[in-house]
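Hey Z.,

So I finally got round to the adenosine monophosphate thing we talked about over coffee. Here's the setup:
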Amino acid sequence: MLTTRPRGTNDILPNEIHIWHFLEETIRRICAEYGYKEIRTPIFEHTELFIRGVGDTTDIVEKEMYSFLDQSNRQLTLRPEGTAPTVRAFLENNLQNQLLPGKVYYFGPMFRYGRPQAGRYRQFHQFGVEAFGSNDPALDAEIIILAMDFYHRLGLKNLTLLLNSVGCPECRKKHRQLLQAYLQPVLNELCDTCQGRYKKNPLRIFDCKNISCQRLVLNGPTIADNLCESCSEHFKQVQIFLREANITFQLDPYLVRGLDYYTHTAFEILVEGIGAQNAIGGGGRYNGLVEELGGKPLPGIGFGLGLERILLALQEQEVDLQVKEKPHLFIATMNLEGKLKGFKLQAELRKAGFKVEMDYLDRSIKAQLKYAGKQGYQFVAILGEREIASESAALKVMDTGEQINISLVNLIPYLEGILKFKGTGFQGGLENDRNDKGIY
Ligand code: AMP
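And the result:
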């Protein structure tokens, strides 16, 4: 137990963290370009927020929440999604009275008690955006374009964008009656959960994971066929804007998404090759949610993308993100005097912005070079007896094995010169100070 993580969770290890940093940087950059600012909300919220916000007939609320009582008997829940908390924060901080549209994004862990499998975890990470205060179909299109642009920048291919409209409460009322009438003769064949949904919210039966329920609703009336005039017009315009941006999509009248708050546009992005859990993102409009959570009516739209699934897809498609940045210099020492000098040198180099380490295990020079190689260091500065005596270092280029002697006072300007930009790789051969070829 002590050395086993809870089921459905993952460790992100030091040798893979650079990929997560790259994802985060890409998220920050793309959101800045589209005008979305980050919002950070608590990891847990009052349970009621999700019951009201996500919907009490959804799988998330019925089966998947991590809820608990705190020491003061407050009913709390680890957030299963990011939209309801964002709306709560928006209202609590009066952001609806500030500049509109309010455009925000978030990135962080979500928690759902599902059956773990490849691509489905109990703790996973989502990147999400939300925009409040505009009902413009062009904004629906912008949100979808942002998601597709994000995948594109990561180099993901073989994506399918599914698009539907789930209408407004008016169209839903009509559709609900039609669907109930359609399912009435087969009511007993629905699973227990869907029998409950039949009365309360039959639309949810469309996203039941039970195959027999899926079959029973398959040829039933769809909401897309029963949109009111204004919802139908909105949906048409979203499609026009998407076509204008050359975004390919497939209409899917059965796409209802697993959360109750969606109205109008609903979308989901699937990727090939990662198994059954192939939805790498989804979202839609939720024009009733702000009011549902106690605010004045305010339209909203957003998406949530699953980062673990995106990483699985990148792996499956063998996309090389080329993001591993090589650290600059390892300082190898042989004795206490060298260590003292190296320690001082290390501090100076770090102050100048270099990524530097030295040996703290009293290893042999050979073992230190091996360590530096494994860690991806571009250079090793060796401070042996001869170098200490001459206030210099033997500088070794790890890629080529080339080695020169360089005086310590020249080391920083020299490295600055050949590394060209800080943070980028070494781009050329050693050119000067070539006066000693001490080999270790
Ligand atoms: P949702 O909030 O259900 O619309 O989910 C949005 C996206 O989050 C999905 O398309 C998945 O990519 C991802 N996702 C949802 N649930 C999980 C999970 N249990 N494990 C991993 N990713 C998930």
